[in-house]
Q: What sequence folds into this?
């Protein structure tokens, strides 16, 4: 019974965070861009979340006549489902975890590799040239960056000898992995930004080029699903960064473990938003080139060095 | 990446050579023309702007243009403008070789720093003339425009199609029989057949442009960028022929923003046309007024007081800053940087605060007048300007660090959209786009107007002619504009804010109540508008985006007989397909951003 | 946990049938993804989480995406489906069907005889997999590595895209070089 409560609780909290990020992102962007942002509905404009959600719900749920209807409907569901599934393995605290799988990291990688379907199928089913271009860009970008993301985490797996996230957190009791695996952190985060296709790597959407790319044709709650999916993705990558590199729930005892976890996660969410506020977007081929020619050698090197050191320490 | 082996060092324009050519007499070119084409009778015409103007028969136009462009030393290598005039209603045309229509070629020589104006008189209802598209690449659009506006056919033009008006339009707007107002045309009805016809006309048919629908092994994708697209900065449609994401060819479709500004010039009085000019390059504000008024003042023979000159320069430079800030912010946004546009629009507001305090208006202040400006500067203007001059420099530094020095930004703009100096001249590029190719050409320095010779400033240049260099040049221009404004601030002359001339409109009140003559002049100037003496004059200013000219023809009436507006964005947009071939869609957006066009400036 | 196995098996079979009966390649591929997910569930229920996850990461997450990618690039639509309908004639499908029927019969015989060993529901830890991969089967792993390397090099060679629509400067350069040759 307690298990069900955890699942429901996690779901509830996550959806609220994702919705709250609508407000947080707009306020933070506004702050960094010298403007006000939404400040009218409710205290500090927090009720904009409600207004936005209601608006999305009541918008005409339009399926373009030229679209492939069922695929068009399925695509936005996939992104939310796959990201929510990934949260299954995140340890929010020693006791709050849906399932502490022993293939935890692999499960996370598997789920994020399914996320690419939403982009590809959404873009293809829209039957729109901009969407198609977005889908093509998205597919190659996400598949490529999945590789670097997976490889960047393998150093930690080597050091802990486990794919289990609770093991990994516990292994950081003395030193956080950010100090042992700084290169991996950078690569993981870059790949994470590319995976969630957030600016600066929002190449499948590229507002000024492809006009929202793969979700150009979406409106109403279907668009809302992409929207929520994106914010959940941001939360997921932030949570993973906190767990893998910054000791997850670990922290001084004056705050409960889950609080430490959320503080760390929010720090990375803010960093995501700051990236969006500050950086221009590279071109698609530049992104791919950097990926294969810089990140891949770097991450392999990191892996080799980590392996060598791990062996050396063990004697 | 292309620039290294393509730096454009072939042409050197040293001030000395320019000076020499300038000194040699205008008739030199005429004598050499007479020697070359002895059978042809060139009829010179004296114009108020002192530009060599020659009438010649239409059979010789291609040969003469070729001679001027290719054969002579210090050639006229830039096709500055090409326009038409419907001469049928013109009063006093008997004195000229004019017939029913005239096609006018304005060529410019960068070596001589000189314009030459060739006129060809055409006879008949829908006459034709040989095309010069084989000589000048940018003649293409200009000839299409003349065809669109007058129905004059250009023999040998590769694709003579309407350019500004819809393909389904009836008649040619700048012909005198074409109505100027919608109310003269009759009520518009949108019936189903009309919708179908208009929709069909908008359909892009690649075959018409000589494009294939598929290559040997794949289909091309034809992608509509626009008319509604955040990257086009207005209603512009570019049809891209894509192989994957690589641009094979592009066809810009303009005219969505066409408001018939030139036609309105024939309807409005000389004075009431000023607000329309504000809206040509709507980011340039009063700078458009200046281009127009310089031509009017040449016609009227008004010499404005120094104070007017300096006030005008100061406001123009403020508008240059404001326009460049819009470009800067939106360019950053085009390559995906979201924040700078907000900072820059905030600073633009600061510029607008000054402009509002001085003019009362913000984007379209309509503040310059024939022979002066609308009012004197308000009390405390110097404080506002001084604050801005102090406030702005750290901001430019900050933005340079934020945008120009950002490596992602460099990656998106360096080596993208390259054109060489020769190509730029061939396509009629002026302004920062030309200076980014290494030529320090600025009409404020080379042909000073409105007292620019009194100011101390530099002409920023860059060498590679890519998107990045165009950006660098513009940012550097912000500094120079600020320098000029500071000089205006410190050296504002005393004196009248309007010339003491009968055609100054409206005249200074203190000169109007002296006797019946001055009173009547005042009355007529504000009721009918001034009557500008017959003649022709062209102004040429360095506007925010390049060379902007008003070529005005007066037949001694209260409104202009022909108003020709040469805008910089028009040839720049024409060049976009040429420079974007071989790049990707994402690069096209960088190129569009770096070209810095305004749709209203293209379409007029 | 037997019912999990049976549910996933039914899903896998139904999805696979849908794969072959769909005319539209993208729809077929989507069912193929479902089929892979179902198979991965089977592995999971049999206590082989590593294989299950690999199934998703490799097949569902990468290979099928590439298939869909290709389908999108080729812009296969209703014409392709019509063409496919024409291709499927009796002589085309008869041979494979007979052969598969033989295999099916064998399978049924095995299942009815019922003397096959039952799979023990026991989890295989990753460590054990890695040990066996890098100890007993090291040669096989290395050979597969060679094979994949050859595959990648080959793919890179075949797929080396010569940019057909060059920038005018590059074109000029190329023309100059070809003149020299």
A:
């Amino acid at each position: 019974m307690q298990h069900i409560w955890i699942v429901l609780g996690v779901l509830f909290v996550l959806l609220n965070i994702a919705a709250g990020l609508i407000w947080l992102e707009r306020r933070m962007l506004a702050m960094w861009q010298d403007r006000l942002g939404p400040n009218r509905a409710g205290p500090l404009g927090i009720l904009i979340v409600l207004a936005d959600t209601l608006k999305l719900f009541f918008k005409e749920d339009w399926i373009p006549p030229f679209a492939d209807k069922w695929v068009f409907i399925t695509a936005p569901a996939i992104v939310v489902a796959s990201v929510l599934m990934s949260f299954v393995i995140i340890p929010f605290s020693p006791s709050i975890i849906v399932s502490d799988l022993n293939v935890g990291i692999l499960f996370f990688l598997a789920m994020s590799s399914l996320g690419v379907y939403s982009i590809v199928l959404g873009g293809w089913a829209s039957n729109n040239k901009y969407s198609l271009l977005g889908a093509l860009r998205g597919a190659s970008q996400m598949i490529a960056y999945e590789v670097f993301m997976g490889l960047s985490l393998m150093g930690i797996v080597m050091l802990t000898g486990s794919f289990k996230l609770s093991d990994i957190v516990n292994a950081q009791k003395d030193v956080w992995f950010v100090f042992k695996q700084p290169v991996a952190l950078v690569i993981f985060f870059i790949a994470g930004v590319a995976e969630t296709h957030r600016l600066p790597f929002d190449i499948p959407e590229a507002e000024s080029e492809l006009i929202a790319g793969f979700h150009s044709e979406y409106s109403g709650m279907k668009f809302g699903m992409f929207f929520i999916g994106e914010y959940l993705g941001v939360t997921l990558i932030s949570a993973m960064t906190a767990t893998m590199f910054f000791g997850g729930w670990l922290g001084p005892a004056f705050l409960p473990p889950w609080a430490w976890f959320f503080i760390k996660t929010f720090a990375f969410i803010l960093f995501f938003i700051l990236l969006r506020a500050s950086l221009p977007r590279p071109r698609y081929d530049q992104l791919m080139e950097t990926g294969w020619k810089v990140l891949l050698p770097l991450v392999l090197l990191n892996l080799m060095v980590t392996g060598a050191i791990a062996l050396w320490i063990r004697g | 990446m292309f620039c290294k082996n393509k730096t454009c060092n072939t042409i050197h324009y040293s001030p000395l050579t320019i000076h020499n050519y300038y000194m040699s007499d205008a008739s030199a070119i005429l004598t050499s023309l007479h020697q070359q084409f002895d059978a042809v009778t060139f009829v010179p015409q004296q114009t108020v702007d002192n530009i060599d103007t020659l009438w010649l028969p239409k059979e010789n136009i291609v040969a003469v243009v070729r001679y001027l462009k290719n054969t002579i030393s210090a050639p006229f290598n830039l096709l500055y403008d090409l326009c038409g005039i419907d001469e049928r209603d013109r009063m006093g045309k008997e004195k000229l070789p004019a017939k029913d229509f005239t096609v006018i070629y304005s060529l410019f020589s960068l070596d001589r720093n000189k314009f030459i104006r060739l006129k060809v008189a055409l006879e008949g209802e829908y006459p034709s003339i040989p095309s010069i598209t084989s000589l000048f690449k940018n003649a293409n659009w200009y000839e299409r425009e003349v065809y669109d506006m007058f129905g004059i056919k250009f023999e040998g033009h590769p694709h003579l199609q309407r350019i500004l008006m819809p393909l389904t339009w009836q008649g040619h707007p700048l012909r005198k029989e074409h109505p100027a107002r919608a109310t003269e045309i009759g009520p518009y009805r949108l019936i189903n057949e009309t919708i179908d016809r208009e929709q069909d006309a908008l359909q892009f048919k690649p075959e018409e442009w000589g494009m294939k629908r598929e290559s040997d092994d794949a289909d091309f994708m034809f992608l509509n960028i626009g008319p509604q697209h955040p990257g086009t900065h207005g209603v512009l449609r570019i049809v891209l022929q894509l192989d994957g994401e690589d641009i094979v060819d592009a066809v810009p479709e303009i005219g969505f923003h066409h408001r018939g500004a030139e036609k309105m010039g024939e309807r409005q009085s000389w004075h009431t046309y000023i607000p329309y000019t504000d809206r040509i390059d709507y980011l340039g504000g009063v700078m458009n007024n200046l281009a127009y008024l310089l031509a009017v003042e040449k016609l009227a023979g008004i010499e404005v007081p120094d104070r007017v000159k300096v006030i005008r320069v100061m406001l123009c430079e403020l508008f240059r800053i404001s326009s460049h800030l819009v470009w800067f912010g939106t360019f950053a946004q085009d390559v995906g940087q979201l924040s700078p546009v907000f900072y820059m629009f905030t600073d633009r507001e600061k510029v607008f605060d000054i402009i509002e305090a001085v003019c009362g208006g913000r984007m379209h202040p309509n503040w310059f007048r024939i022979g002066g400006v609308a009012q004197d500067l308000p009390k405390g203007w110097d404080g506002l300007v001084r604050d801005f001059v102090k406030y702005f420099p750290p901001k430019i530094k900050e933005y340079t660090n934020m945008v120009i020095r950002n490596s992602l930004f460099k990656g998106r703009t360096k080596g993208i959209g390259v054109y060489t100096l020769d190509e730029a001249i061939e396509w009629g590029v002026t302004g920062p786009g030309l200076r980014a190719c290494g030529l320090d050409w600025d009409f404020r320095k080379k042909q000073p107007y409105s007292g620019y010779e009194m100011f101390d400033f530099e002409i920023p240049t860059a060498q590679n002619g890519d998107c990045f260099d165009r950006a660098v040049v513009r940012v550097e221009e912000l500094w120079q504009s600020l320098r000029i404004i500071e000089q205006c601030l410190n050296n504002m002359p005393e004196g009248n804010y309007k010339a003491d001339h009968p055609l100054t409109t409206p005249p200074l009140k203190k000169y109007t109540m002296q006797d019946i003559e001055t009173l009547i002049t005042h009355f007529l100037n504000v009721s009918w508008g001034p009557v500008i003496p017959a003649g022709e004059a062209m102004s040429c200013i360095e506007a925010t985006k390049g060379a902007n000219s008003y070529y005005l023809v007066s037949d001694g009436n209260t409104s202009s007989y022909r108003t020709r507006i040469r805008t910089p964005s028009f040839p720049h947009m024409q060049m976009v397909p040429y420079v974007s071939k071989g790049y990707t869609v994402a690069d096209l957006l960088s190129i569009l951003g770096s070209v810095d066009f305004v749709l209203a400036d293209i379409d007029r | 946990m037997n019912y999990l196995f049976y549910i996933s098996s039914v899903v896998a079979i139904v999805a696979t049938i849908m794969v072959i009966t769909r005319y539209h390649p993208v729809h077929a591929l989507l069912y193929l993804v479902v089929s892979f997910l179902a198979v991965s569930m089977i592995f999971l229920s049999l206590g082989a989480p590593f294989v299950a996850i690999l199934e998703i990461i490799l097949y569902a997450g990468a290979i099928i995406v590439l298939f869909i990618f290709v389908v999108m690039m080729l812009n296969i639509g209703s014409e392709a489906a019509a063409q496919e309908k024409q291709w499927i004639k009796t002589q085309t499908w008869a041979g494979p069907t007979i052969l598969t029927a033989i295999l099916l019969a064998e399978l049924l015989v095995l299942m009815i005889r019922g003397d096959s060993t039952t799979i023990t529901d026991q989890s295989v830890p990753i460590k054990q997999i890695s040990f066996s991969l890098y100890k007993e089967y090291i040669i096989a792993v290395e050979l597969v590595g060679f094979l994949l390397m050859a595959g990648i090099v080959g793919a890179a060679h075949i797929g080396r895209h010569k940019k057909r629509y060059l920038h005018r400067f590059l074109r000029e350069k190329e023309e100059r070089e070809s003149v020299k040759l």
In short: DSSP finds eight helices and no strands in chain C. The mean pLDDT of chain C is 79. Chain C touches chain A through 25 residues (CB under 8 Å).
